[in-house]
Design brief:
The protein is an alpha+beta fold and 206 residues long. It has helices at 6-11, 30-38, 60-67, 70-80, 184-197, and strands at residues 21-24, 89-97, 111-118, 130-133, 142-146, 153-157, 164-165, 171-181. The strands form 2 sheets. A 5-stranded antiparallel beta sheet has the order 1-6-3-8-2, covered by helices on one side. Strands 5-4-7 form a 3-stranded antiparallel beta sheet, with no helix packed on it.
Length: 206
């Protein structure tokens, strides 16, 4: 079963102001989102968790396999006019957002493209909605806002002005992040940091 709505991504408009990004609502169908949530790992603390310890029964693994495929990479490369062939990829899961999370940032310079896939169902909270920001000071000066739900996809090209963040929220908030990295070395450093932040916890179904 194919999970990714590649036709929606191919048809999506690439915005160029304040930086290059695309938002694709419903990139995952409702049935996939439901399956993911039924087997999502039990994450009750903040931070990013590496995917290497995911249990084989988790539906999110099927989605990751498709994101790893050549069609997704080719489509992103063409739409963002960026050469990512052969570049290392890094994945991480989140399941809980802390009040301190969501502060304005651009992502580190060793990231080329950031992919965020939101896995919550029918997000009702005013906080936790990622915003594409026009500057690095004001979270309310935004070009677009992405509710973190229902399989929505956000992709952006990292730059010195790729500011993003959200109003505070504390509680369960599920997402998958993928990055194309500049080098294996930078990928390894982030992986170690994420592993330590997750306290080497094995991810098991909730």
């Amino acid at each position: 079963m194919a999970h990714l709505a590649m036709d929606k991504l191919k048809a999506a408009k690439i915005e160029t102001s304040p930086y290059m990004y695309a938002i694709v609502p419903g990139f995952l169908p409702p049935e996939t989102v439901s399956r993911i949530n039924a087997t999502y790992p039990k994450i009750e603390k903040g931070g990013s968790y590496p995917i290497e310890s995911l249990d084989a029964s988790m539906a999110i693994k099927e989605v990751i396999d498709e994101l790893d495929g050549p069609l997704f990479e080719k489509t992103v490369a063409e739409k963002f006019a960026v050469d990512i062939a052969g570049k290392p990829k890094m994945y991480s899961l989140r399941g809980y957002t802390r009040a301190k999370d969501g502060q304005i940032h651009t992502d580190s310079k060793d990231k080329i493209i950031t992919v965020l896939l939101y896995l919550n169902e029918n997000w009702q909270q005013p906080g936790g909605r990622l915003r594409i920001l026009r500057n690095g000071q004001n979270v309310d000066d935004f070009a677009a806002e992405v509710p973190p739900d229902n399989g929505s996809l956000l992709i952006f090209k990292r730059s010195d002005n790729s500011w993003h963040g959200h109003h505070p929220f504390e509680g369960p908030r599920r997402s998958l992040q993928m990055n194309w990295m500049t080098s294996e070395g930078s990928k390894g450093w982030h992986k170690v940091r994420h592993t330590l932040s997750a306290a080497m916890k094995k991810l098991v179904p909730a």
